[in-house]
Amino acid sequence: MNLRQVFVSVLMFGVAGLLLFMYLQAWIEEQHIESGEKLQQIINQDFTLPPPGMPRRAAWSRSTPPGFSEHKMAISGGRHWQGKADPISVVAASLVSQLSDQQKMSESPLGQFRGVYLPPALHPLNKTFIKGGKWKDVDSAQEKRRSFLHDFCKRYNSRKKLQTHLMHLVSRIYVEDKHKVLYCEVPKAGCSNWKRVLMVLNGLAASAHNISHDDVHYGKHLRKLDSYDLKGIYTRLNTYTKTIFVRDPMERLVSAFRDKFEHPNSYYHPVFGKAIIKKYRENANEVALKTGSGVRFKEFIQYLLDSHRPVGMDIHWEQVSKLCYPCLINYDFIGKFETLEEDANYFLQLVGAPAELKFPKFKDRHSSDERTSAEVVRQYLKELSKEERQLTYDFYYLDYLMFNYTSPIV
């Protein structure tokens, strides 16, 4: 065989290999599309909020993905789940089984959970450590809150489309392993003192009163749930007592504004203040533009309601529905800032905390300032037009509904 024949043979072999590769690639892509469509049918459920200004009626569609019953799709409620199989594992196994082998190899485990709906299931609290009738009224209020949120989520939010990875879903949840507690942080609802309590429970401090503000927020002494692997996340979601503490949305908003913009702040003034003043203040002076100090409440609300904000959102005024996902994660205990001390101390009894540990009463910062009350909120709302007040309420509409807060008179 001469050189020319060898060259032709190699060329033909190469062409044949290329054709075979193209055929296989097309076949694999076809399989991906088919399996992807099946997956999307399962995980893509609609969830829409009524636009601002429209009558505030829930507009959530409700449907059960094929192949799933409601109990199979639930994250269990703490240590009392009575099912026969781990519900998270059921979801994972069902979804993964519909992916091609190529997809399983190429996608990260978290990617498989994008869009998965994780509805709540209502389970009784473990009251083993509760003695006597001291907590009867607090317990009754707690059961009403849990039942109200569960019914709300079941009725209005039965199949919410989760547009984020599981890691983001649990990114605000702090872990205390010794007493098996998961706490979702809601800023301006007692979170600083709650983190102090978690540090004491975890043996990191002898007393909550000896822990500084900087240690609480910048010391990185506490682990968050997203720092664990998937097995660690699921185990804790299924077996730990999960709690969230909330606050009237308007009070929380005004409290955040007062804290971040009415006191010197080396972060919020240059990052948020400068951008807000530049966009929303006419004829702003050079000092205000340079320092970002002196943001007015009306300007802050203009920023909040702007669909093209000059700077992003912040956890201190983000909706609770987007911080802790109360209709996706089943919280065993729902505390309120308005009854913070008694709710918190009851919760500590529930989880078997030391009898001497009580929730701190002190104000974390700006202790000389009047607490943000309903009357203080009314004074700030006077700076807004009726339309701005209505739109601000609409912005927190879901938080008002979820936690049964009375809507403000706008």
Write the layout of secondary structure elements.
Blueprint: H1 3-43, H2 87-97, H3 101-106, H4 136-156, H5 166-169, E1 173-176, E2 181-184, H6 191-201, H7 213-218, E3 223-224, H8 230-239, E4 241-246, H9 249-261, H10 268-280, H11 286-291, H12 297-305, H13 320-323, E5 333-336, H14 340-350, H15 374-381, H16 386-395, H17 397-402
Parallel strand pairs: 2-4, 4-5
Antiparallel strand pairs: 1-2, 1-3
Helix pairs in contact: 12-16
Structure notes:
- There is one protein chain.
- With 410 residues, this protein is mainly alpha-helical.
- It is built from 17 helices and 5 strands.
- It has helices at residues 3-43, 87-97, 101-106, 136-156, 166-169, 191-201, 213-218, 230-239, 249-261, 268-280, 286-291, 297-305, 320-323, 340-350, 374-381, 386-395, 397-402, and strands spanning 173-176, 181-184, 223-224, 241-246, 333-336.
- Strands 3-1-2-4-5 form a 5-stranded mixed sheet.
- Helix 12 packs across helix 16.
- The longest helix is centred in the first third of the chain and has 41 residues, at 3-43.
- It starts with a helix and ends in an 8-residue tail after the last helix.
- The model is unreliable at 31-120 (pLDDT under 50).
